[in-house]
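Hey forum,

I'm writing up a methods section and want to include a predicted complex as supplementary material. The small molecule is S-adenosylmethionine. I've pasted the protein sequence and the SMILES. Can someone with a working setup run it? I'll credit the forum in the acknowledgements.
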Amino acid sequence: MNHQEDYESGEDCDVQYYEDYENVDVHKLMLKDKPRMNFYHGILSDPTVVKDKIVVDVGSGSGILACWAALHGAAHVFSIENSSTALWQKSVFEENGVASKVTIINDSVENICARGCAWFADNYKFIAPLGGISLIVSEWMGFYLLHEGMLFSVLRARDFFRELNATLTSHPPRIEMVPSKASIVIAPMHMAAFKEAYLQEHWGSFHGVRLSTVGQVDFAKYDESAFFIEVLPEAAVLGTGTTFCEFDLATMCAESAHLVRHEINMDLSSSAAFQYLTRTAPGVAVDGFTIWFDVHFRNYRLSTSPFEEATHWKQFTMLLPADIREQEMVYVTKEEPSLNAVLHFGVLMPRTSELTRWTWTVGQ
Ligand SMILES: C[S@@+](CC[C@H](N)C(=O)[O-])C[C@H]1O[C@@H](n2cnc3c(N)ncnc32)[C@H](O)[C@@H]1O
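Reply by user p_vandermeer:
Happy to help. Structure tokens for the complex are below, copy them as they are.
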């Protein structure tokens, strides 16, 4: 059984991408995301991470991460932001008393790299006596980790600053990446449990009146789609999550995120939802796959799992085609509570020719 999902974008995708970040609501959403903020604040307020280092914030947006690094002892921070949100940053850094420690570069990573290391070293002569760049922080993650396509810019920045460091000193500092590790996790899902929770939450009671008939009409937007981005209730997730792929930001090359193909075995036996649903039935029909990601740095961890506090990334769910779901063709039994799937995943960059593709083959 095969499925393929393509999202192709037009020529002006890059322009549109940066324009989206000029909307203050997008930043408000990210700044209100507690798990996200706690993860980055925990790291950047840790003196063993930032103290006396030159830090680069790749894609600094409102300037929040650059601010935290500067406030917690960084020797200097480069705040790189291509969109016009960089124009807010001068007053943000002044307001927080760190303006003298932060250099704002309102340009893209790609343009900065194109100018070359010699240009950078010449423009920012204070770097050499401070020993080079030793920390790159970035919040680059998109839906199912890679959708936004920003990881490629972060890797490009990493390689550029490594090259810069090597031109400055014979013993260049190692550049630590924040986050340093990232993984994509996947679990089978069951639509009926999602539907029940959705109808209950949104259409369950209006001063004692249930409107589940109207709710059915509303829910069709999920039932009829190939994929959707929502927080799934635990009851709909038929596994604790199997790691599909892992990236080490220090060593990976951009190509390794372009095409990933793995055969994975998902064991459902330890899932509370699977156990609950098979109390009275011989098995459960799988309606699709739910994908989320985790990122790490040392002991710090940010998870977008359906089993943890919700984030603005929610979870990404790909549905099996309607006929397969209707006929319950992917059915996992109590006796054999595991499912094999071959998943292929590819992202082509640059963003102007972005093509994100998930394909999968399921067999039991
Ligand atoms: C997810 S936001 C994070 C903003 C901020 N660091 C935060 O944590 O709130 C990513 C930001 O990176 C910027 N960005 C993405 N790709 C970039 C690139 N190649 N060069 C410069 N800025 C980039 C976007 O414009 C956006 O403001």
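Some notes you might quote in the supplement: The radius of gyration is 23 Å. The mean pLDDT is 91.
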